[in-house]
Amino acid sequence: MIPPIASRFVAGESVPSALDHARAANEDGVAVILNLLGEHYDDPADARADADAYLQLLDDIADSGLDACVSVKPSQIGMDVSADLFEEHYREIVARADELGAFVWCDMEDADTTDATLDAFESIAADYPWSVGQCIQSNLKRTADDLDRLVDVPGKIRLVKGAYDEPSSIAYTDKARVDEAYRDDLRFLFERRDRGIAVGSHDPEMISLADRLAREGGADYEVQMLMGVREDAQRDLVAQGIDVYQYAPYGGKWLSYFYRRVRERKENLTFAARAVLGR
Length: 279
Fold this sequence. Notes:
This is proline dehydrogenase. With about 280 residues, the chain is of the alpha/beta class. The protein has a single domain, classed as TIM Barrel (Alpha-Beta Barrel). Helix content is about 50%, strand content about 15%. It has an eight-stranded parallel β-barrel with strand order 1-2-3-4-5-6-7-8, surrounded by eight helices. Helix 4 links the parallel strand 2 and strand 3. Helix 7 runs parallel beside helix 8 and helix 10 packs across helix 11.
């Protein structure tokens, strides 16, 4: 069984438990992004198994009638084997979602995979417009150029600050500088897009900025937060008429999920502790 500290952040180990969590969140007006835990597979069979699991999950979501979608990790569906295998599985999952009227997000992992991930997103979105979305990390110094490249791609963009501890040669490492980059990236998206903007942040300042920019420019947007983090705020935003999505991981690999998050950046441990304490 998942211990209490983990169950706050993980929607169980099985698909039924994940769907039950999504159902409960929907009752509060919160949509859910389900992510099967798993990453960094170097065996093609493991990548295939999780790709198949996502295909089945999309069917299950469609049958359930829930307000939910899925999010995949590149290294989970083949990136650590080859970029071609990743894109093959990614495309297959999005094709199924497109058939079902569903949606697929792709997370962003470490900076070594950024080019291959964005190449796949751009190609797949062209074939399945508005059935796919891509996460972009503002802490990377390259992100302004990436957003300029992707701004007209027919897919959603989830803007996050970035959780990976990248070297200062390619990433901003000072919190204030990351915040500045995130604000600049938000302004760019709201200036250049009228739809498909996802604000992936728990920072009240950034969410308020997004709301102001949306009101000024009329763009549609959504806010995305993690399961177990500021859930009262998620419901408050829904009450204000803002579309809110909760990222909810599930599956048997919950222990490695927490280990990797803490190992990547020491700030992640503090963040989790504050969430548990409700601060």
